[in-house]
Amino acid sequence: MRRRIAVITARADASEQRDILYGISEAAFRKDTDVVVYSNIYNHWQDDNLLNYENIIYSLIEPDLFDGVIVTAEAFRDIKIINDTIDKIRAAKIPAIVIDGELDGFKSVYSDDETDLEKMTEHLITVHGFTDIDILTGSRDSAASQKRLNGCKRAFGKHGISFDNIRVYYGNFWNDSGEELARRYLSGEIPRPQAVICTNDFMAFGLCDVLSEAGVDIPSELTVTGYDLTGGDHTAGRIYHYPLLTTYRRNRRKMGRDAVDAILGGSPIQDNSDRFVSGNTCSCGVCRLHLLDELVAEKIDQYHTIMSTVAQFSGRLTTSRTLEEYTGAVSEFFYLLHGADRLFLCLDSAWNSERFNGGEFLCCAIDNEYSEPPIKFSSGETPVPFITEHDSPAIFYVNPVCFQTRLYGYTVLEYNRPASYDFSFRDWNKTVADTLEFLRMKNDIHYLTQCQRQSALYDSLTGFYNLCEFESIVEEAGHNFCIQAVRLSFPDGGEYLFGENHRSDIIAETASAIKRVCTKHEICCRTDDNTFLILFKRENGMFPEKLKISLHNEVYSRHDERQVIITYHSSDNTLVGELRSAVLLNAEHDVGLISERRRLPHYNELADIRNRIISMPNKMPKLSEVSRKMCVSEGHFRLIYRQCFDVSYNRDCINSRVMKACYLLYSTAMSIYATAVSCGYDDEKFFSRQFRQVTGFSPAEYRKKILQ
């Protein structure tokens, strides 16, 4: 199996993180290794539970699934938000690397900031002949500040220039530090030098903005240089400041490559590339071709941002009634995920319930042509079940889909080349989260309006008595009555969650079927959303049989066990509480059995075949046909069918035909021969023989008994 490494970062769309991730994916792909990147979307500054709920995405990381882990420390406002995940990584005892930071038990990888600043300082000394130079760096206690300052010192010493600590000004690596230094120059508080080396571009932007606004001619009156600008092959951001900054690009890609080599083995590749970026804040001037590349890249980014806010995408998702329609709409607008090869929408199996579970997920694979039906998987198995279905290494971005304090699950973007998403993905992700909440609320409203309206005595959906009134009737009924319970269970997942919300429809269909069976003054009750109780006279002993064959043919034949499970329980006494507990216990047992079935290979294919048998018993598919459809031998098909449903394929076909015949004999006046033909039999005698084998009665005897 292909090796796999995890990357833990924040704001993966930020240009500095994209540079690191490019380097990681380039090195991993050379070693035939997949990369799985876990990232939040917003990376909020504030410590607010509502804002930071998205960070639960890091709790989904299972280190045992990976051959190593990389943490990009500088991406996090506060590294403490991933402390629990870091503890899990330490416990797993797998190779772990931290980029630009220190963590106990992790090896550290840094960029060579000292050498970069040494080269930038030498440029001012050797090319421009400056010796009167100030330095603006970060805070005094910052390791990055001191490393970059040391690079400047080395260049000064190499050229015999004395280094004066008074010429060093400390800031915070943000624009306001440069703005403050500019105002001090303008006020005359400190003398203006020939040049200022800013060890961070943001500080250089602030310095140039204030000086230019005040009329200082840069670079003729003052030369300014920066450092650390990112953006891959272009320097995103500097075109928004005047004059265009002279800077030096930090080698974040090399940090990413070195981190992969530290995990997977191999010597770091030397990179002596010249990353000096000329601009107009020194007299070198701008490289025309380089500037054109920046402008083209910026236009592309702006186009992506505009396209990601297209109202049609939000409107199309909002009008979706089901997850099937929803994923189809995402596929239709897949082009908004610029350059991605596939998208995986992994929703918590209880995504439309009150709280995030996180144990099991439903995962749909989506591209620009179609969306696949969901696959159910455990969070401890794999980040996404389709992750091994590719011939070459890929990089996967795992991102939370979060609406306030409701985490629906996550998305996974797959790229089959070193690539990443950009800023526009934040808008895309927000649209998906908002419209999922809208879909959840629509389903809740639909269900509540149809299923939970009750009056003082009756359930308005079914017209049946409510529990309180039913218990009063039972107390007065005496011992000549029995109670039949029917419990509907709706499995999480499958067609119920993915397709139409059938719950209220199934409840209504069940109630209608019960009404049709209750022809002898039986009294019906709907105790809760999914449970029915029917009080019937003891002398009407065939009532449970009538009810089962009716519900089998009118409900179960339309909605298979992936949508609804019907459980029955009868009681000769009239203790309603005990009966409700008993049918609930039986229902839990039935749900457990079917949950075990669903873990078996080929379950969905076999369930489709069985549903066809039950819904159309007069058109039974031949054994050769179904085994050929599943690409297995007839013997193997018989084996897996029995393992799944605990009954042979042939016996299941016979039982389905007989159940249909029972229903027709009870509910219609069709002749025995017509009943046989309707159930797929050519020979009436053969039909009668099979019917007796299953029920113990001939067709005529059965009709007489059930109608009495």
From TrEMBL:
Name the UniProt record assigns to this protein: Transcriptional regulator, AraC family
Gene3D superfamilies linked to this entry: 3.40.50.2300, Homeodomain-like
GO molecular function, one term: DNA-binding transcription factor activity
Location of the HTH araC/xylS-type domain: 607-705
Top-rank taxon: Bacteria
Classification via SUPFAM superfamilies: Homeodomain-like, Periplasmic binding protein-like I
Matches recorded under Pfam families: HTH_18 (PF12833), Peripla_BP_3 (PF13377)
Record keywords, A-Z: DNA-binding, Transcription, Transcription regulation
Xref: InterPro entries: Homeodomain-like_sf, HTH_AraC, HTH_AraC-typ_CS, LacI/GalR-like_sensor, Peripla_BP_I
Keyword Cytoplasm among UniProt keywords: no
